């Protein structure tokens, strides 16, 4: 977490987060993250937006090999 006042106890709770890619296609896309919350003794002094958009996330194509056994 950035911009936390020295001495404040603030944590980021990711237990209920959800991340959605704007597209499943290979390329550069936006990811929207929701369900984050703040915890700790001083969490009430801070706020998070309902959703956070992360830009410049690249989905790359890769090969998958599957071998049947039996």
Keywords:
mainly beta; three-stranded antiparallel sheet; 0% helix; 70 residues
What would you say this structure looks like, in words?
With 70 residues, the protein is mostly beta strands. 0% of the residues lie in helices and 39% in strands. The protein has no helices and 5 strands. Strands 2-3-5 form a 3-stranded antiparallel beta sheet, with no helix packed on it. Strands 1-4 form a two-stranded antiparallel sheet. The mean pLDDT is 85.
β-strand percent reads 35-45%
- Rg over C-alpha atoms, rounded to the nearest angstrom: 18 Å
Structural class by sheet pairing and helices: mainly beta
- Tell how many strands the DSSP assignment holds: 5
Helix content: under 10%
Biggest sheet layout = 3 strands, antiparallel
- The main sheet orders its strands as 2-3-5
Mean residue pLDDT:
85
Tell the overall outline.
elongated
Runs in which pLDDT lies below 50 for 5 or more consecutive residues are none
Distance between the termini: 49 Å
What is the count of DSSP helices, taking H or I runs of 4+ residues?
A: 0
Order of helices and strands, N to C? Answer: EEEEE
Chart the SSEs and their pairings.
Elements: E1 11-13, E2 18-21, E3 27-34, E4 37-39, E5 51-59
Concise synopsis of the structure shown:
The protein has 70 residues and is mainly β. It is 0% helix and 39% strand.
């Amino acid at each position: 977490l950035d911009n936390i006042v020295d001495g404040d106890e603030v944590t980021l709770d990711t237990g209920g987060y959800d991340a959605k890619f704007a597209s499943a296609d290979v390329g550069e896309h936006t990811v929207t993250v929701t369900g984050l919350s703040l915890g700790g003794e001083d969490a009430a002094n801070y706020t998070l937006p309902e959703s956070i958009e992360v830009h410049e996330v690249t989905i790359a194509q890769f090969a998958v090999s599957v071998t049947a056994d039996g």
